[in-house]
Write the structure tokens for this entry.
Amino acid sequence: MTQLPIDQRGAWRALATHAETMRGVHLRDLFAAATGRHAAYTRHAAGLTLDLSKQRWSDETFALLLDLAREAGLPEASRALLDGERVNVSEDRPALHTALRLPADALLVVEGEDLVPGVHATLDRMATMVERFHAGQWRGATGKAIRNVVNLGVGGSDLGPLMVTHALADYRPEGVHRIEVHFASTMDGSQLADYLSRLNPETTLFVLSSKSFTTIDTLSNARTARDWLMSRLGQEEGVDDGLVMRQHFIGVSASPEKMNDWGIAPDHQLEFWEWVGGRYSLWGGIGLPIALVVGMGNFRELLAGAHAMDRHFREAELADNLPVLLALAGIWNVNFLDIRAHSILPYDGRLEYFAAYLEQLEMESNGKSVTHDGREVGYSTCPVLWGQLGPNAQHAFYQLLHQGTQAVECDFIAPLVRYDDVTDEATRDHLMSQHRLTLANCFAQSRVLMLGDDAVEDDGPRPGHKRYRGNQPSTTVLLERLTPATLGALIALYEHKVFVQATIWEINPFDQWGVELGKKIAGETQRILESHQGLEAMDDSTRALIEAVWQAERAAETGLR
């Protein structure tokens, strides 16, 4: 018997009926109707606190959403993910980023192979590399110790390492040879050009991070970096191209053959596997820049924090499961309250790149409109997700959140404690006061978004431009403090949230065929631009744009003569 699509099953229909009664209910009334709402909708795990009390739901909503999760087969789907079944159905393979953070004494046999030894062999090779760098023993072709590492990657090979290195910059190990890590992702070369103008080629190394080792963005930057090194170091006595390649490049890829072909020394390669998606890959070799900044011990703490959340996701009951509850709140907002915008608002400057990281994680994963069996979905999937640091956003787009016409779900993220380890007492007091100010703003903003006018002391009638409707749902995620372990748990929380939502929507969060199509068409367009042939195959607009490029290039050439 064929199973009904999710939007035709009993729990979904019950939620749709229930939503008709909930759309007119204001959050202030939900709080007024019951004491202890915070405790009823707050859960703790892996150093995180998840407060969902400001979501526009009731106990009945909560129960119906849990019914939906069960009806979607979520417990079975979660076990299939974590046990290495082929949950990436369109590419017919597992999605086992969680295996990258298993402890060394774990056992995970997938299709007859224990994956843990291979994972830890890569981590051990990575640790050896990091130790060489931190001892000042990784030397360039002229014998000088490497001081600057430039990560060449895009998407998951850039956003994850960039986000984590910035978030954990306070955790640099002391007493080691300091390595400065930089990131270049843009195919136009603007980021790379800036580094090449400032860095010393004798003390600079490049990490080429690409799962396929065919990504044109990364390889175009890599070729420029290689030519820059060769032209400057090749003039030195005793330095040949082979020595430059060996001492100034590390490769991270699922394709050792392509790394070999490009000239990267086999013992300077870090491998990851086809069963790890790019946007889920910071936990392995792609995380080398992280380990170079924070040290291998802190990198392993990052993995341990993520593994703690993995265990919670596997073992906790649905009603107490942080990723499940965070996902169900999103399902309720997107599919039943018609809230299709979601803002990520960290209240800690170290999480500056967290929203950008989640933009890829969520929208590349769940920006899908076709189910596993090829049916076009009849419901909304991933919302439009964006954000930035909350204190800065307060002076930018919070106006829309408070008084605009668009309903938006918000995630507020903050550590409870910061700066208590600053040694100078006066400076510590000032900085801790600033942190309390930041938390006050975080809590106040979610309160005003919830209550609207009721959060403002009544000082008489106010004109319409000073009225606030409130009723904007939000979640608050608190970290005990921002550490490698709690950051790992936070990232894993959102990874599993994405999977839960994909399971309910019956879509595959582990492929990205829309991205692949864009790459293919870009390659074809590039060939036309360079060869001046095939223009007749283009549409009228694209043809005119290409001709404008040719005209500008001819004018530039004429001006140079």
Observations:
- The mean pLDDT is 94.
- The chain is about 50% helix and 10% strand.
- Residues 425-451 form the longest helix (27 residues).
- The first strand starts at residue 42 and ends at 45.
